[in-house]
Amino acid sequence: MQAMLRHLLHLTWLETKIFVREPLGVFGSVAVPVLLFLVVGRIAIGSTDAQAIREAAPGDVEFLRTDLPVFVAILITLSAVLSLVTIIAIYREGGILKRLRATPVRPPTILLAHVLVKLLFTAATLGLMVAVGRRFYPIGFDAPLAAFTVALAFSTWSLLSIGFVIASVVPTARFAQPLGALLLYPMIPLSGLFTPIEMLPPGLEMVARYLPLTYAVSLLRGIWSGNGWSAHLGDVAVLGLVFLLATAVASKTFRWE
Amino acid sequence: MNPDHVIEVDAIRKAYGPTVAADDVSFTVRRGEIFGLIGPNGAGKTTTMECVEGLRAPDSGRIEVLGLDPVGDRRALQLRIGVQLQEAQLQKRIKVREAVDFWQSLYPTAVEGGPLLRQLGLHDKRDAWFMTLSGGQKQRLFIALALVNDPEVVFLDELTTGLDPQARRAIWDLVRGIRDRGKTVFLTTHLMEEAERLCDRVAILDHGRIIDMDRPAALVERHCPQRTVVVATDFPAASERFRTVPSATTVRSLGGRHTIDGRGDALVTDIIHTISEHRMPVSEFRTVLPTLEDVFLTLTGRSIRA
To answer: Where along chain A do its domains lie?
Structure first.
């Protein structure tokens, strides 16, 4: 048990360093969401001037206060899942997973290390977003950051388990990125991020209710706007169930080579 | 289990759907030898080796490695063996030193990384990313990782495939060094020259079955006892003289060049004797010995390169 933890920490640190060395790794997963946050924020108001913000339409302020941060948070999560799918596919194709499995490392440790790396970068991105937000985003409000970080980590953890299911079905590393994107990104418009799901056509509303992302959006938006956890026990339960189900499926379907 | 036997494989069979990769395969590997599983690509070498390593479970049959069951006692066995897998890679941007450090951390006892890398000629490359290494350097790193836990048995699967002849020879020297330090080496190769030069004993695998097993020289002696001597001389009646040599079976003469086939080492002695007896002026003298490639051709009717 102690050896397992030691292996996990060592491998997590190693994979973190390797991810940082990827030419687009950190840029894609950290810089892109933060830049998007800043640029879209600026475009929405037309100015970051405090005077302009006070005079902005209430809808715009609402967008900046809630919608944009939650949207970027969801983007961070989905890009973490996509990155995980791609890395697992590349590692499988290159025989890296097989090579690691021929050592005393326990197989779940290998996968858990990647989950931890993704959570680490998710937290780092969120931290950077808050930092630049404080500096360049002159809407003064107090978001419950600690609770939001926990909510984002929990949502990401849950959705990453779906990443392992997707990684089990992608045939080759070449297909991992496009196929993963095709499976993940269509969830965005259906998740209630832009349109409340009650306002979707009945057929799509049904679909939305079965998408895990819908519950992540609901949880993140609620916690961001100051709701207590008790108001979102349903979301937490669904995301927890998604994690259990996806992990159970992945443990049956996961291919190491 | 005989204490001298490090690996015992008894009638294992492994099929993937309708494809039988290993069919009634049995062999033993003795302590301190280099044992080679040889045969063409697709013969079942890797499947057999991965069953012995505990990476796959055979459908039937029994395997014992160092007295352990590779599947049931996998954890205990892993600490005592070192493996290099065919076509395995590492993370593109992992440094040589980081890989060795991580592997060391996985075993309760490990050899020191510095001397290990020096011994394998990788010390200057310790801060290089895996993706920047040459093919030979990558394979030497995999040997280093296989040796990190000071294993009793080392498994090397198609170690020199894709390497240039110079890198290949350097690797052979390293493998001999591993054996000379008292370890047992179990390797697979489809290169007959490699098997002949490196292995103390080989088993020839074809279509999942072992067709024969022995020291390379003994296999050649058993299946290809013919020897060929080529002599170039302008001595007038050379052809007739060579035909009278008792161990010669056929003599082909073209211009002043005579190709004499016969059986056994006596042929070479007999030809030298005939040359000296008649004081023939010789401008070329060459003996052609059969190789494991010829053995494979004799046993299967196919060339191993096909």
So the answer is: 2-253
